[in-house]
Amino acid sequence: xxxxxxxxxxxxxxxxxxxxxxxxxxxxxxxxxxxxxxxxxxxxxxxxxxxxxxxxxxxxxxxxxxxxxxxxxxxxxxxxxxxxxxxxxxxxxxxxxxxxxxxxxxxxxxxxxxxxxxxxxxxxxxxxxxxxxxxxxxxxxxxxxxxxxxxxxxxxxxxxxxxxxxxxxxxxxxxxxxxxxxxxxxxxxxxxxxxxxxxxxxxxxxxxxxxxxxxxxxxxxxxxxxxxxxxxxxxxxxxxxxxxxxxxxxxxxxxxxxxxxxxxxxxxxxxxxxxxxxxxxxxxxxxxxxxxxxxxxxxxxxxxxxxxxxxxxxxxxxxxxxxxxxxxxxxxxxxxxxxxxxxxxxxxxxxxxxxxxxxxxxxxxxxxxxxxxxxxxxxxxxxxxxxxxxxxxxxxxxxxxxxxxxxxxxxxxxxxxxxxxxxxxxxxxxxxxxxxxxxxxxxxxxxxxxxxxxxxxxxxxxxxxxxxxxxxxxxxxxxxxxxxxxxxxxxxxxxxxxxxxxxxxxxxxxxxxxxxxxxxxxxxxxxxxxxxxxxxxxxxxxxxxxxxxxxxxxxxxxxxxxxxxxxxxxxxxxxxxxxxxxxxxxxxxxxxxxxxxxxxxxxxxxxxxxxxxxxxxxxxxxxxxxxxxxxxxxxxxxxxxxxxxxxxxxxxxxxxxxxxxxxxxxxxxxxxxxxxxxxxxxxxxxxxxxxxxxxxxxxxxxxxxxxxxxxxxxxxxxxxxxxxxxxxxxxxxxxxxxxxxxxxxxxxxxxxxxxxxxxxxxxxxxxxxxxxxxxxxxxxxxxxxxxxxxxxxxxxxxxxxxxxxxxxxxxxxxxxxxxxxxxxxxxxxxxxxxxxxxxxxxxxxxxxxxxxxxxxxxxxxxxxxxxxxxxxxxxxxxxxxxxxxxxxxxxxxxxxxxxxxxxxxxxxxxxxxxxxxxxxxxxxxxxxxxxxxxxxxxxxxxxxxxxxxxxxxxxxxxxxxxxxxxxxxxxxxxxxxxxxxxxxxxxxxxxxxxxxxxxxxxxxxxxxxxxxxxxxxxxxxxxxxxxxxxxxxxxxxxxxxxxxxxxxxxxxxxxxxxxxxxxxxxxxxxxxxxxxxxxxxxxxxxxxxxxxxxxxxxxxxxxxxxxxxxxxxxxxxxxxxxxxxxxxxxxxxxxxxxxxxxxxxxxxxxxxxxxxxxxxxxxx
Length: 1164
Fold this sequence. Notes:
InterPro entries: AAA+_ATPase (IPR003593), NB-ARC (IPR002182), P-loop_NTPase (IPR027417). This is AAA+ ATPase domain-containing protein. There is one protein chain. By secondary structure, the chain is an alpha/beta fold. Among the domains are: 3-26 and 95-259, TPP-binding domain (Rossmann fold); 29-86, no CATH class; 281-443, Rossmann fold (3-Layer(aba) Sandwich); 455-608, 3-Layer(aba) Sandwich (Rossmann fold), CATH 3.40.50. It contains 53 helices and 25 strands. The strands form five sheets. It has a seven-stranded parallel beta sheet. The chain has a seven-stranded mixed beta sheet with strand order 16-15-14-10-8-9-17, with no helix packed on it. Helix 13 (299-303) links the parallel strand 8 (281-287) and strand 9 (311-317). The longest helix has 28 residues, at 791-818. The radius of gyration is 34 Å and the shape is globular. The model is unreliable at 261-275 and 693-698 (pLDDT under 50).
């Protein structure tokens, strides 16, 4: 039994926190089960809710995210909640619920049901009952229903907004924080593997974080670990729960008998407060943590002592710049060290320097300052005559005692280890008890730190003081130059630059962000440009440099290019260097590389080798056993120095793979024996690429990885080697969801938390924001081990990787259908994985149809984020491996589509005409899925320039494609039929089409358009954003700056941008140039080519310019021939000099082109 739990029971300090799992055995639904019931109910009205249910079941949306999608259906949600939770309790076995009431008289639950109050008869208090919340401490017992009660379902905490409001603002939370400050919490019925429970605990963690007590949860999962500051208590299975509770009851009863007390709780008496209490004060907390000192910042260790006071604490690093910026604070606290009667402070390069108390005063704005308190490590001598501010200096370690005396007793005397200057100037008011609010500089800014830089992975960083100092100084001072950090593999380049990045970030440097690009898997210029463009927010522009210059984009940011040496040996290195040169004028660039980049403006820093002491210190961070003096000598000289070459990565991997109390003499022997055999493992073959000329050639790094690898279990090796097929890494949740499928539940090669945790503990993987990745050199080793496997084993790996990617693509498509922007964002996070999958998809021959479905789905996603150029070459390589009928034609149409959408209109159009002329489309059977995909791909091109032929084909072949039908009806101005179709089918209209239609009918509200532009698209859907913004330009609601910020991805978007600029241009000559450029670029997109001619013709007419008749005749003929009825109407109005509303009944198409039969198909 856990001793802290025992002590908490004896002291009446155990708080039970009961979750949904406690009610499930009594046939109450799980949380996800409840949401599924809601979605099934809603699906009776609309099929789209079935897709949300599928997304929920796969885990790609959390339950809170799903609820957020249906918050407009709150009434139905509450009805299902009431029906499922408000059940009769008659006949239910409430033994377990009664037992928890015998253990503690203080129970909190997030459950809505009435089981606990029925079983215990405790006083029920709901979170919104402010009177009873305020008096919880006076109650003999209580059951706090933190998320509400089923008696009032509409007040239950269900939706994301509910949670945000409850855990930020309510009296329940403030009181709860006071209540549990010195309590131990035991969570029962919370499954830490449940995403919803983890989200709940994130919120609940805001209550207890900062308090010193440890908290616990019951679990039957053997691999369970600490989560949100809560530690596991393991049960063999849930049958042990009842005996476990019995043991707690026995401890409680023995304690009550021994103390002579009844089981009744002692009532806390609230002291009478002084009328001079100050409700809230503002404190600036400054800590000295220069990068050349060993001290780590420990804001939380200070703020926890103020957690019970109603104060706002703003946290800063102690520097002159910060001192000068402090204004409006009641008190300033400084924590530092003393050297020769001076205090340590940071200089402009984050290094330590010394400052006197007098200099502190000189750099402070002292208006309204009630007191400044300096905490240091030893006595400091200060001349009182030189200080004119209320200053107290303590060399006292008991911060809790100091704060009590200052803010409760209002006393400045009785400090044995303190010096008080100008005591009469201090203004100490008793501070009201409450909840402190802690704010860091980053909380107040929109700073952004790359997700590839995870602070928790730097906790054990040691040494490298001179490297940190030099790199930091050079980054801060670098002006339009690139800083290259050079060093051998595994020496710590990446870790060191990430450490510097975090230090700068936490001090508020580089407000536009710190970006991180891993160049390891970049193989061409386009991929590199795409990664760089992401940092500027313009990933797919035709001309990145032109766009940046045109919009005067300069970022106060850092872009870190990691493993840059891999780019030095690709054919397009000159283009890459040219882009790096250009970038330096717009942003700070830092490169890590195994060799110099050889740029004229290259600032350099070469990483030095670890010293013996640094190596020993790093080893001690990961290996905690006590060593004898003779073992330390062997470790330092023979193991770390000679065998591991003081290589940080080798040391880290070796140390984290040692069992407790490993004898260092035996370790030395093990490593020496392994070193003798490593040539048999093909060590030299791992590093034989051009990029490896400058890699560290000692066998230490390879050996440390091999030493760890050999000790892996079968499934740990599977995950380790499988990761080399995933350049973006794999998100932990996706692995779990994949292997939780029925097909894999009994799979002997199933990957679980156990394998993930084991590899992380052995330092073989890195986990950044949930993504599991291999460090660069470890990835090379994993790939080498993988390639050594038999062909059969490799095929099995490829199949497993493809099955995972296929699973992910299907789930992403479902998300895309339900929530377009989120689906594309997740796809974009995994884009390199999808690209990589095209290189092994032909390694095995099974199920070609399944592979083709995968390719068509992922091709759509690549197309939507303008990345088909990344896969066009791969498609051409793999198409020969498919021998299904018409499979080659499918690839040809996709490749033509890729060329067209990339802006190579003529090449794409010529390719589709050669591969599949319109006449040949009639020979295909669109009831066959593969042939239907071919037709869809071809029609996407033909509709732009051959709309009449497409319309004829669709009608004659009864080709039912909803979006194609909507597009055809729009081009012919049949808006009424679109509304009829969408009403009967229950499907929506694409946002741009809807905005255009409403604008043409004079029914579009500007606010509606703004909402569509801001919320309907993923940020990389540049074509969609350009199109909808074009509607805004036609409304006259746009300026040049907004237009210029739009990203041009091909000739079509270039044409729309030129047309928008023409519409707002006041200079006649410039307008003509813009119009004619727009007309030229839009020619392949026939509808908007015709619309551009209309706008140009109108401009010529209004300005009485030549060529009006020529352009009018051309536009009028195009509109009429292509049956663009709305544009036909606009030209008619122009000719008559009238502005008449559009009446589609005046432009009825001939029967041969009517699509009523297709509309009927869509209705059904």
